[in-house]
Specification:
The protein is α/β, with parallel strands linked by helices. It is 54% helix and 15% strand. Helix 1 crosses helix 8 and helix 2 crosses helix 4. It starts with a strand and ends with a helix. The structure holds shikimate-3-phosphate (S3P).
């Protein structure tokens, strides 16, 4: 049984969708961000502040390698995991990769309440969202399937991911 790997920008709904898909399919839910936090013993924003983004990406890559040897999981990947091609190859080697997307305004409204995302902790988060989306577009395009979650009910997105996973024969 292949993994289901949810990728996509921050605020596109990966966590809530991955948790529910895992529950409904009786599979294990795995959050890469949580694995990184557990490994480092501190929250993501502290890793960024104290050790820097480059260090965070190194740990993220290690976690990706670990996960690429496992099967049957629903993986909630961090928003930036796809910027490294080897990460994409590893995650796809045992998994169907589904990318969730949303418009900059929707991402802004979904991420604004939390200060836990260091990359968006800037005076002009909307601009940062647009810049990062543009820089990452070609990377997100590498996913096997795409779902725009901007104006979709979460229940629809969950069912769509389950349908994709069944069709992919996972
Ligand atoms: C990041 C997304 C975050 C987290 C870190 C970096 C990114 O995960 O990994 O803050 O580069 O887009 P979520 O997409 O789960 O918020």
């Amino acid at each position: 049984m292949k993994n289901i790997v949810l990728v996509g920008f921050m605020g596109t709904g990966k966590s809530v969708v991955a948790k529910e898909v895992a529950k409904r399919l009786g599979r294990q839910y795995v959050s890469m961000d949580k694995m990184i936090e557990d490994k480092e013993g501190k929250p993501i924003k502290e890793i960024f502040a104290k050790d820097g983004e480059e260090y965070f990406r190194k740990i993220e890559k290690e976690i990706t390698k670990e996960l690429s040897h496992k099967d049957g999981l629903v993986i909630d990947a961090g928003g930036g995991v796809v910027i490294d091609d080897e990460n994409v190859r590893n995650l796809k080697s045992h998994g169907t990769m589904v990318c969730l997307s949303a418009s900059p305004d929707v991402i802004l409204s979904r991420t604004a309440p939390s200060k836990d995302r260091p990359l968006l902790n800037t005076p002009d988060p909307k601009r940062r969202i647009e810049e990062l989306l543009a820089a990452r577009a070609a990377h997100y395009a590498k996913a096997d399937f795409h779902i725009d979650t901007s104006d979709k009910k979460i229940s629809y997105v969950i069912e769509e991911v389950i349908r994709i996973s069944n069709e992919a024969g996972d």
